[in-house]
Amino acid sequence: MYQDLAEKTAIVTGSSKGIGKGIAERFGKEGMNVVVDYLTDPSGAEDTKAAIEANGGKAITVQADVSKEEGIRTLMETAVNEFGSLDVLVNNAGFSESAPSEELTLENWQRVLDVNLTGAFIASREAINYMSENGVKGSIINITSVHQTIPKVENAHYGVTKAGLKMLTETLALEYAEQGIRINVIGPGTINTPANPVHEQDEETKKKTLAKIPMKKIGEPEQIAAAAAWLASSEADYVTGATLFVDGGMTLYPSQLEQ
């Protein structure tokens, strides 16, 4: 646990399920105030809120479309009005709609970019404005993927957003380092979530999945959450512009072991 996080306020986008839910719940264990964002899953958001409060934190749920400026502003206003500050922003919301590149429609491409990259930019901009104006030496954590580095077939738009988010992170980190606003990336590998229920795969598919992971095991949202808590805490106050891969070694390209 990180004592300096107690009573600080965080927004976690897309926190009704999966990685976002894990991060929000961990922040609750740290005694933080958490704005739980959701788009279409109010019951999941309420479950996250209940877990945060059971862990000792405070929480409020907000329905907001993070691809829209008005949605982001609603989240920011809720954090400040409800809890009095904004100290940590986690840009977690994201999705993909797989398609062969020759069949990828502009609508599909744009929808993924709007949520995964444009939304993170808007939220980061608004958080930086608040932190700068109020002298908050805050932390912004962007959730990307190993696919910011490793191409993923039939997911050109997804990979572009994750690589773009890495560069956005590095640019903003450089720009606002002197103000003490730290901006970092967590790059998850294969994590067992409702959107990616790896443990439910048949044995042959699971074998192929594990072959890509040197540690030969699937990650859990709690492991991403542990990295997020550390990056948000003062123990990481000399870390900015970094990518922390939590991937069981996937970015080491395990196919090289076969040579």
TrEMBL record:
Coiled-coil intervals: none
Keywords on record: Oxidoreductase
GO molecular function: glucose 1-dehydrogenase [NAD(P)+] activity
Keyword Signal found: no
PROSITE patterns: ADH_SHORT
Protein family: Belongs to the short-chain dehydrogenases/reductases (SDR) family.
Pfam family, one: adh_short_C2
Taxonomic lineage: Bacteria, Bacillati, Bacillota, Bacilli, Bacillales
Keyword Oxidoreductase found: yes
Domain of life: Bacteria
InterPro entries recorded: NAD(P)-bd_dom_sf, Sc_DH/Rdtase_CS, SDR, SDR_fam
GO BP terms in the entry: bile acid metabolic process
Alphabetized Gene3D superfamilies for the sequence: NAD(P)-binding Rossmann-like Domain (3.40.50.720)
Protein name in the entry: Glucose-1-dehydrogenase
EC number(s) recorded for this UniProt protein: 1.1.1.47
Enzyme class: oxidoreductase
